[in-house]
Amino acid sequence: MPENLPLVAVVGRPNVGKSTLVNRVVERGDAIVESVPGVTRDRNYFTANWRGRDFRIVDTGGLDPVSEDGLTRAVGEQAMRAVEEADLVLMMVDAAEGLTAADEEVAEVLRRAGKPTILVANKVDNQRREEEALEWYSLGMGEPWPVSAMHGRNIGDLLDAVVEGLPKPEEGEKEGEREIPETVVAIVGRPNVGKSTLFNRLIREQRSIISEIPGTTRDAVDTLVEVEGKPYRFIDTAGWRRRSRVREGVEFYSLVRVWRAIDRAQVVLLVVDASQGVTEQDQRIAARIRDDGRACVVILNKWDRVKGEGDPREAYEGAREELRHLSWAPFLRVSGLTGAGVQRILPAIDRVKGNWESRVQTAHLNEMLHRVLGQTPPPSRKGKRMQIYYLTQARTAPPQFVFFVNRPDLADPSYQRFLERKIRESFDFEGSPVRIALRSRRSLDKKRE
């Protein structure tokens, strides 16, 4: 999502349909939608296009300027950060409910912000409601645009106004052009292990809300940052909960966001609370990362507590043992709270992504294979021995290696693991899963024809 695109912020009091409008505009279901106030808590950025014009749109939590609740105020601060960044603001109101004191407070806050603003009267499902929407002129925010985000009514007209209100691109400017491909990094883990604190340390700004309440982050929050000319897209996800505790619909969709984030990512940062040790949930997430074939760095967070209260060596070795699914991943001991060790994360991301995408020349692979076979040939099974003729790398991301053999059915699982280990010892695949496949000699002969 290029940072040079103009930005549209969607704001308003809670439960007026902001996420529904964003989903309608971007034509996908990335923002969580549910009829419960306060579902969207962080800023969530998406890319949209209308009549050939690309722009970014940010979904925000509800603004409630008079609330004294700490979390509600933090959500409002996030919304105001989006307003500060925006080139254009869409103030949403609920036409079905009518004008409220909270709407007037939001309007006053936006007037003080001084940003170009379009007033959007949502939930206008018929002509009568459209006529009643004229009452919103009293807010002093200009002409109200009556729409139904749920049913798509008048959305095209609204988007025409949005595009017209955006800054014009500079002459010769090519929107969205990047010379260096971005690295997509998902930050995952069970609730309350410090993902958002770590995320904020990495991106050097407060974009995810930090709270001691487990599950504060419900959406997956995309943030694109550039470090020394390299673009990184970080996806800060909601905590992964046990299925037995996923009761509300919104919690289920948060879990789906975690799955999607892992699927979208090239590199996954698995954040573990080192002071509590590895749990069954951590192991389940690790298995998912491995099965999806993603590069991975394990972050042992809250290491400052381990050093102050426990045995660091025992904690480190115990974590590696419990996360055997990811034995090939680097384990970094950090503290998101103090920042200790965080500087090692970006270099580790670059390293494991490079290994995940690397390709080994066939000649080098077969030199290694001949050496290994001379020292440790395959074991015999039922009086017969599998013969290995040739080795090649079939793909990258993740690396997959194909051994051409006489009888794949004679393969011994432990010997296949041995071959993977030898590949790792000979070539650097730290942080990346390695997949092994066996093919019959006939497949090789057919390939050579």
Structure explained in plain terms:
There is one protein chain. This protein is of the alpha/beta class. It has helices at 18-26, 70-85, 101-113, 127-132, 155-165, 195-203, 249-264, 280-292, 303-309, 312-322, 345-356, 362-375, 413-426, 441-448, and strands spanning 7-11, 44-50, 53-59, 88-94, 117-122, 144-146, 183-188, 221-227, 230-236, 267-273, 295-301, 331-333, 380-381, 384-385, 388-395, 400-405, 435-440. The strands form four sheets. Strands 2-3-1-4-5-6 form a six-stranded mixed β-sheet, with helices on both faces. Strands 8-9-7-10-11-12 form a six-stranded mixed β-sheet, with helices on both faces. A hairpin with a 2-residue loop joins strand 2 and strand 3 (53-59). The two termini are 45 Å apart. The mean pLDDT is 84.
**What structural class do helix, strand and pairing data support?**
alpha/beta
The average pLDDT value, as a whole number, equals: 84
Specify the number of helices: 14
User: Major sheet: size, sense and barrel closure?
Assistant: 6 strands, mixed
Question: What is the fold's blueprint, element by element?
Answer:
Blueprint: E1 7-11, H1 18-26, E2 44-50, E3 53-59, H2 70-85, E4 88-94, H3 101-113, E5 117-122, H4 127-132, E6 144-146, H5 155-165, E7 183-188, H6 195-203, E8 221-227, E9 230-236, H7 249-264, E10 267-273, H8 280-292, E11 295-301, H9 303-309, H10 312-322, E12 331-333, H11 345-356, H12 362-375, E13 380-381, E14 384-385, E15 388-395, E16 400-405, H13 413-426, E17 435-440, H14 441-448
Parallel strand pairs: 1-3, 1-4, 4-5, 5-6, 7-9, 7-10, 10-11, 11-12, 16-17
Antiparallel strand pairs: 2-3, 8-9, 13-14, 15-16
